[in-house]
Design a protein that fits this description.
The protein has 245 residues and is α+β, with helices and mostly antiparallel strands. It is built from 9 helices and 7 strands. It folds into 2 domains: 90 residues, Beta-grasp domain (Ubiquitin-like (UB roll), Roll), CATH 3.10.20; 120 residues, Alpha-helical ferredoxin (Fumarate Reductase Iron-sulfur Protein, Chain B, domain 2). The chain has a 5-stranded mixed beta sheet with strand order 2-1-5-3-4. The chain has a two-stranded antiparallel ribbon with strand order 6-7.
Length: 245
């Protein structure tokens, strides 16, 4: 089986290199290449069981975890997008810490000591499963036009802390996700489609939007529509007349 890997090194141009591999699993194939064919191939992995998120790449343009991906002949393997490529398939993911810090996503000194039941745990369980693989970050079209966008994984984590009874800084979180955050999302579902943990960032962002409105925030992009004017002019455009004339 042949696969194509996008290679990159500092001060060199990108290029695609083809390799012949025996393994069907992508991560095992990368290890096979490094051990037997090309020791210069660089990639990142950790747990090898879909938990750490460090082996995320793009396969034929779609974000995948290498350790959980079955490859096909002539697949194209590339690094995830919107991150600086360090070498080959390894990218700089230091933005994770910056975005989480920017959104005040922590408990630390803001902890409230209260009794926690199973329902409380259920409310934050799914969002807590985010492994920061950056697949949602790479698939998000907003980053092409807005590099300051907080991003799907940070907004999902924001909902996790908003729903956490132990967290007292809810207002700080809501304040921090209004600009370059929940209202900038186009709700395209690209992040949801590639999440290996089955998290739905689109739904999480919509929930944050609804909660923000309940707290008095408004969508800065929402246009004020004058519906009375629209209906006044409706007949001029051949509108439907329920009376039949």
């Amino acid at each position: 089986m042949k696969i194509n890997i996008k290679r990159f090194n500092q001060n060199e141009n990108d290029f695609i290199k083809e390799y012949e591999v025996k393994n069907e699993n992508l991560l095992q194939s990368l290890i096979e290449i490094r051990n037997n064919l090309d020791a210069t191939l660089t990639f990142r992995c950790g747990c090898k069981s879909g938990v750490c998120g460090s082996c995320a790449v793009r396969v034929n343009g779609v974000e995948r975890l290498s350790c959980k991906t079955k490859i096909n002949d002539n697949d194209l393997i590339e690094p995830i997008k919107y991150c600086k490529v360090i070498k080959d398939l390894v990218v700089d993911v230091s933005h994770e810490t910056l975005l989480i810090k920017k959104s005040n996503l922590s408990i630390n000194e803001n902890i409230i000591y209260s009794e926690i039941n199973k329902e409380d745990i259920k409310n934050i369980d799914l969002q807590s499963n985010c492994i920061l693989c950056n697949s949602c970050y790479s698939s998000c079209p907003i980053y092409e036009v807005n590099g300051n966008f907080i991003g799907p994984f940070a907004l999902t984590r924001a909902l996790r802390y908003v729903n956490d009874k132990k967290c007292s800084n809810h207002n700080l979180i809501f304040d921090s996700v209004q600009t370059n955050g929940i209202w900038d999302c186009t709700l395209c579902s690209s992040c949801t489609l590639v999440c290996p943990q089955g998290i739905d960032p689109k739904s999480d962002i919509m929930k944050l939007q609804n909660l923000s409105i309940q707290k008095g925030y408004t969508n800065p992009y929402q246009q004020n529509l004058n519906f009375s004017d629209s209906f006044d002019n409706f007949d001029n455009f051949g509108g439907f007349n329920p009376n039949g004339f």
